Amino acid sequence: NLLDQATFQPMMQMAYHLDVAKINTLYAYFAFNANKLVMIIVSLASAIAVTVVPILSESLAKHNMRNIRKQLEDSIILFLFIMIPGALGMAAVAQPLNTLFYSYNQIGTLILQISAFTAIILGLFTVVSALMQGLSRNRDIIRYYLIGLIVKLLVQWPCIYLLSTAGPLVATAIGMMVACVMALYDLEVNFGIRYVKLLPKVNRILVYSIMTYVAARLVVWGLNFLLNEQSKTQAFLIVALAVLAGGAVYVYFALKSRLVDLMIGERAAGLRRKLKIK
After folding, report:
1. Separation CA 105–CA 32 (nearest Å)
2. 10: which DSSP letter?
3. How far separated are the first and last CA of the chain, in Å rounded?
C-alpha cells in the first residue's frame, strides 16, 4: 500500500497525463473503497486457517512431522474453503455492494471485482506466512516477502500503463504470488506437504465456488430489471438475496460432497439429516 501511495500518482501522470484530483479519485477506488471490503473476507478466512499455528509449534517441538504435514494441509484447505467462495461471491455482487457502501459507479464496481479476485492471493500469503512463523521460519518468509515486493516494484509501471487503475492491484497480485509460490515450495521441501493430495478438494472448492458465483450473478442480473440498482436501499435487497442464493448453493454442495466435514466435523452429518441431504 505504501508503494502504491508513492508510485501511483507519478506513474499515472506519465502514462495518461491526468490531473492530480482525478488520480486521487482513482487511487481511492482501489486503495480505500475496495480494500476495506475485501479485507473483511481476507481477515475472516485467514483467522480461521491460522488457528492451527499453536498446534504447529507444539508438533514442531515434538518433531512430529506427520502431524505438521496434516495440520499444514488442513490449514490451506480451510483457508480456500472460506476464501474462494467469499471472493467470487463478492465479485458477483460487486455492483450493488459498491452502491450500498459508496455510490453507483461502474469504475468502482470493476475495481471491486478485480480486488475480490486478487484478495485470494493476499489472503493465501497471510496464511502461509503465519504457518511459517509457527514453524520458526521467520527469516525465510521475510525474505520471500521482500522478493515479492521487488517483483511488484518491477511490474508496477507496465501494469499501470496497460491496465490503468487496476494496474497496482495486478502488480500486487503478481508480487504476492511469487512470494506464495516460494513459501509453498519451502513447506513442501522442508515439511513434506503433499499438494497433489489436496488437488481433489481444491478442485471441488473451485467448482462449487464458480457455481456460487453464477447463482449470485444471475440473481443480481435478474433483480436489476425489477429494482433500481442506483438506490442504496434496493441495492441492499439485491445483495441480501444474491448472497442467500449463492450461499445456499455452496452450502448444499459442500454438505452433499462431505467437504464441509473438515470444517465442523460430526455436526455436518446432523445438518445433512435436518436438510435431508444424502
Report:
1. 15
2. H
3. 47
| Max intra-chain CA distance, the chain | 62
pLDDT tens track for 133-178: 888 889 999 999 999 999 999 999 999 999 999 999 999 999 999 9
Under a CB-based contact definition with an 8 Å cutoff, are residues 209 and 84 in contact?
yes
CB-count exposure of residue 274 (10 Å: 0-12, 13-18, 19+) = exposed
Please state, in angstroms and rounded to a whole number, the distance separating the CA atoms of residues 177 and 180: 5
Q: Grid coordinates representing 263?
A: 470444517
Measured from the Cβ of residue 238, the count of other Cβ atoms closer than 10 Å reads: 27
User: How far apart are the C-alpha atoms of 56 and 71, rounded to whole Å?
Assistant: 7
C-alpha neighbours within 13 Å on the C-beta side of residue 266 = 0
CB within 8 A of 25, min separation 6: which ones? Answer: none
Whether 200 and 207 have beta carbons less than 8 Å apart is answered as: no
- Directed axis angle between helix 138-163 and helix 2-16, to 10°? 20
Per-residue b or e along 200-210, where b marks 16 or more CB atoms closer than 10 Å to that residue's CB: ebeebbeebbe
- Cell digits of residue 218: 444471475
Secondary structure class of 101 (helix, strand, coil)? helix
DSSP states of 162-207:
HHGGGHHHHHHHHHHHHHHHHHHHHHHHHH---HHHHHHHHHHHHH
- Identify the CA nearest to 249 among candidates 88, 77, 43, 74: 88
The backbone torsions φ and ψ at residue 231, rounded to the nearest 5 degrees and listed phi first, read -90, 130
pTM recorded for the entire structure: 0.90
Q: How far apart are CA 183 and CA 143, in angstroms?
A: 10
Amino acid at 10: P
- CA–CA dist 8, 14 (Å, integer): 10
Average pLDDT, rounded, for the chain: 90
